[in-house]
Design goal:
With 406 residues, this protein is an alpha/beta fold. It has 14 helices and 14 strands.
Length: 406
């Protein structure tokens, strides 16, 4: 192992068990370590100097930035790529307020970011204390949970809860700490991280989904961000292959299904694939796997209102509040995308499906639509409109080289 790996392993092994005397800063840092935090993003400030001194011995690296908004976006990206918490911290007041936009982005991306917001000391609140700001309301709209440390002895409790909720609620949480609460001596027990086992969803809803798919003539799968977050790409491929179903990506989630796969058709929504839109328009059953079916990803595009109005929609999402929120659905499954896809495949195993009879015909349709869209994209390199053709002719009379209008 290298020095950093050894240091992190030693820090994890040294997490105290049972109630012990420690400072609130130690309780805070030990809870970070218990949750596997090895990297944080932010700008060092006086509000958290005391815990900062023990970040490195605990195997935690503070990665400095030029602006706190960058720290928030880095924490968001770190969490998306790693599947772990992204952690951002900053100086109270203006340092924290700089992060609002980044936390809003993480909120809409369902990213487990924990923003740690030290605030002015309790003895100067309301008196114009150093860089005083009301820090909870500014993040209220963009966090799943806000933990405000009400007493130094509750430091580990609130810290652990923020990390637990970020994962269970799939979004940012805020840990707000009066700066004087880092000091003193307390008796604390470092909480063990709690992680939900989401499972595949309810038996009844899974059976309903399988029954709908068994009767489908032209099923289409929407592969969403939940497929990426749940490491469910292989399961999505297996379901698509069992059904012979074209797969379209939800908006901004082009990584949710491999473009090299013959059933891949491209993304829906803004600037999306015409092939994907024309194919989903033919669907009689749609499986929205790990997608909240947001309005921007299902809106008309290229002059096509392609959403299938009469199709039965099976929506699978780990957040029950997303089920049926945007689009009317026939079956809602609250579950993990990977587990749900596997459970549906198991229910289809050995069954004769209505769509089996048209597998080759549908495959040909998929390839034809993809080829037509590729040809259209290729032709975009050649101008056809009168204005562009006129400009090309004008440029021939001018000295030098000009960029093609496209």
């Amino acid at each position: 192992m290298n020095d950093m790996t050894e240091q992190k392993a030693a820090a994890a092994a040294a997490i105290p068990v049972g109630p012990q005397k420690m400072t609130p800063s130690e309780a805070f840092v030990e809870t970070l370590a218990a949750n596997g935090v090895t990297d944080m993003f932010g700008i060092m400030g006086s509000a958290f100097m005391d815990p900062m001194d023990i970040f490195a011995p605990a195997g935690i690296r503070l990665i400095p930035v030029v602006h706190e908004q960058g720290a928030g976006h880095m924490a968001d990206g770190y969490a998306r790529v790693s599947g772990r918490h992204g952690v951002v911290i900053g100086q109270n007041g203006p340092g924290i307020s700089n992060c609002v936009t980044a936390i809003a982005a993480a909120y809409w991306a369902h990213t487990p970011v924990v923003i740690i917001t030290p605030e002015t000391g309790t003895m100067s609140m309301g008196l114009g204390g150093f860089q005083e700001a009301n820090q909870l309301p500014m993040f209220e709209e963009f966090t799943k949970y806000q933990g405000h440390v009400t007493h130094p002895a509750r430091m580990a409790e609130y810290t652990g809860r923020c990390f637990d909720r970020a994962m269970s609620e799939m979004g940012p949480t805020q840990l707000n700490i009066p700066r004087d609460y880092f000091y003193g001596e307390i008796k604390a027990e470092i909480p063990k991280p709690s992680r939900l086992d989401r499972g595949a969803g309810g038996e009844h809803s899974l059976n309903e989904a399988a029954e709908l798919l068994a009767q489908a003539k032209f099923p289409v799968i929407i592969s969403g961000g939940g497929v990426v977050m749940g490491d469910a790409i292989e399961e999505c491929k297996a379901l698509a292959e069992r059904l012979g179903a074209p797969v379209v990506n939800s908006y901004l989630h082009n990584d949710s299904f491999p473009a090299s796969h013959p059933l891949w058709c491209g993304p829906l929504g803004y600037q999306g694939s015409k092939a994907a839109m024309k194919l989903i328009a033919q669907a009689d059953v749609v499986v929205a796997l790990g997608s909240r079916l947001g309005p921007f990803g299902t809106l008309p595009q290229h002059g096509m209102d392609y959403w299938p109005k009469n199709a039965k929609i099976i929506q699978i999402d780990a957040d029950n509040k997303m089920l049926g929120l945007v689009k009317k659905i026939s079956v809602g499954i609250c579950g993990d995308a990977k587990a749900a896809a596997k459970a549906i495949i198991a229910r289809l195993d050995g069954k004769k499906l209505d769509c089996d009879a048209t597998r080759d015909e549908r495959y040909a349709t998929v390839q034809a639509e993809k080829a037509a869209w590729e040809e259209e994209l290729t032709n975009w390199t050649h101008e056809k409109d009168a204005y562009s053709l006129d400009m090309i002719e004008e440029q021939k009379k001018e000295p030098g080289n000009y960029l093609h209008p496209r």
